[in-house]
Amino acid sequence: MKKLVNDKTQFVADMLKGLTLADDTHEVIADSVIVRKDRKKDKVALVSGGGSGHEPAHAGYVAQGMIDAAVCGEVFTSPTPDKILEAIKAVATDAGVLLIVKNYAGDVMNFEMAMELSEMEDIKVDRVIVADDIAIDNKEQRRGVAGTVFVHKIAGYYAEQGLSLQEVKAKVEAVLPNMHTIGMALEPCMVPTTGQHGFELAADEMEIGIGIHGEKGIYREKMETVDQIVARLMTELEKEIEGDKFIVMVNGMGGTPLSELAVVARYLKEYFDTKHLQMTKLFVGNYMTALDMQGFSITLLKHDDDYVAALDSKAASKYF
Amino acid sequence: MKKLVNDKTQFVADMLKGLTLADDTHEVIADSVIVRKDRKKDKVALVSGGGSGHEPAHAGYVAQGMIDAAVCGEVFTSPTPDKILEAIKAVATDAGVLLIVKNYAGDVMNFEMAMELSEMEDIKVDRVIVADDIAIDNKEQRRGVAGTVFVHKIAGYYAEQGLSLQEVKAKVEAVLPNMHTIGMALEPCMVPTTGQHGFELAADEMEIGIGIHGEKGIYREKMETVDQIVARLMTELEKEIEGDKFIVMVNGMGGTPLSELAVVARYLKEYFDTKHLQMTKLFVGNYMTALDMQGFSITLLKHDDDYVAALDSKAASKYF
Q1: In chain B, what residues touch A256 (CB-CB under 8 Å)?
Q2: pTM above the 0.95 mark?
Q3: What is the mean pLDDT of chain B?
C-alpha cells in the first residue's frame, strides 16, 4: 500500500491533529471531536459528523457560519454515541442543538442514542437526516452524500440569523426534498487503514452511482468522454428533479484534480444550456470525498433566492 | 487512459471555461488568459502563469489581494509571448505591471519577450523569478514550485497597499532567498493530453525531489512511513534554511487527499518540535499541483511578521 500513513491505527487521530494545526480556530476534544474554540454563542448549535475519509467533511466545516462541532469516527465508521454526546455537550446552548446526520444505519442509530442521552441531561436537541444520493431507488435507504455540505452552510446561515431550533430544522427540512446527488468513479479508493480497495475496475471501466465509502455503484460501463458521462448522470437526476433553475455542486471524490472537475463543470453547463436549465450558482471542488477515489458527483439543489443568500454568506471555513 | 477529458486538444480551454463558470469575478480573454473583471485599479498589476496542470495555480489565484491575470499555457507548456502580452495589456495600470515567473527556461524566455513587447507599447513592466525547489543543486537551474503561491499572496498584499512597482519587486526579492521547497511522489501524474505517465514507480517505491511537471526526482527509495519521509525531506531543507521560525506549506500534488496531507502536517509539526523549530503559520492543501500526482511538497518560508500579515490578509481567492 502506498499511502501517507504512519501508524494505520492512528490515521484518524493523526489527521485530526494535522487539520487542527492548520486552523487555529479549532480544537480537538475527546480524541475525535473537532469543535470551534469560540463556541457557545447565543444561537442554535450545529453538530454533524460520521465516519472519516470524507475530508474536508466534516471537520473542515467547523467554522463560524457553518457547523459548531464535527464528530469524526474511524475511516468509514460511524462515531460512537458517547463521542457524539461529548460534541453535543461541548457546543450546546439554551437555543438547543441540531444534529445533521447522513442517512446510514450506523450514523442514524448512534446519533439517535446520543440525542436520547442528551435529553436525559436536559439539553434541547433535534436532528435532520440527509439522504440526497439518488443511486438507491428506495428513498428510505438513500445515503447522505455531497448535499450534506449545502445543508451545513444553509443551516449555519439560519442559525447565525438567530432562528430557533424548530425554525432551523424546518428550513433544512424544506431543503432536503429539493436536493439530489449522483456520483461516479474512474478508480476506487484505497482505504489506508486496511490497504484494500473498495472495489476493482478494469483499465477501461467506470462505475456509476458509487457511494462515498468505497461502495460499488449501481452499474458499470466502459469509459466515456465527459459530455457522455455528464449526460448519463443528468439522465438519472432528471428523473428526480423539479423546476429548471438549480444551484449546482461538482464535487471531487478526493483523487481527481481540480482541472478535471472544471472540465466536468464546463460540459455540465453545456448540458444545462441544451436542456434550457439554469445554473444559478456553481461550486466546483473537493467538498465530500471518499479518500483518494477518482471521480465526481453532481448535486442539484432547486434554486431559491434564500439558498443562494445562505450559500453566498460569509463563513470562516477555508474549505467552502 | 481514464481521465475526465472530452477532446484532449481542448483540455485547457475546457478547464478554463469551467473554472470561470465557478467564479463570476473572472473572465477568459484571448482563449487562455484569466483576468479579473474588476481590474485596472490604481495599483501595481500582477501577472503570473505558465503551463497548465497546476490548478488551482495560477488561474485560481486571480483575485482581489492576489494576482490580476494568469496566462495559462497548454498542459506543462509555457504560454507564448503574445498571450502573455495580452495579459499584461489587459491589466496594466500607470503604476506598472510585475510579472511573477517560475524559473523554467521556456517561461523565463517567453515572459522576457512579452516584457520587451510591452515596453515597446510604453507599459511599465518588471519581473521576479521564483526558484524555490531545492531538488536541483545548481541554484541557477532551480525550478519555481509551491512557494510561488506565497509570492502571489505577498506581492498581492503589497500591491494592494499601494507600493510602487520597484517597491513590490524589492519586497518579493527579499522573500525569494528565504523560501525553499522540496517534493515527493507516491505515484506519477497521468497527462490527460498524452495519456502518458511522467515516470513509472514500482508498487513499493517513492520518488524524492520530483518536479511539478511529472519530472523524475533526484532519487528513488522504498516506501516509508510519513515520519520517515518528513525527516528525509527536512534533512534536505535543513541544508538550505537559516533561522528557526518558519511559515510552512504542506502542498498536495493533486491526487493526494486532504486526510493524508493532514497526517503529513502532524508529523512535520512533531519534527519541528524535536528540532526546536517553530511553525508560525501552517497551510495544508492543494496549492500548486501536478495534475493527479500523488505526493506532497514542503515549503519553508523564513518567518517575518510582515509575511504573516500578508498571508493572513483577506484575498478573494477561494483557493487560498
Answers
A1: 4, 255, 292
A2: yes
A3: 96
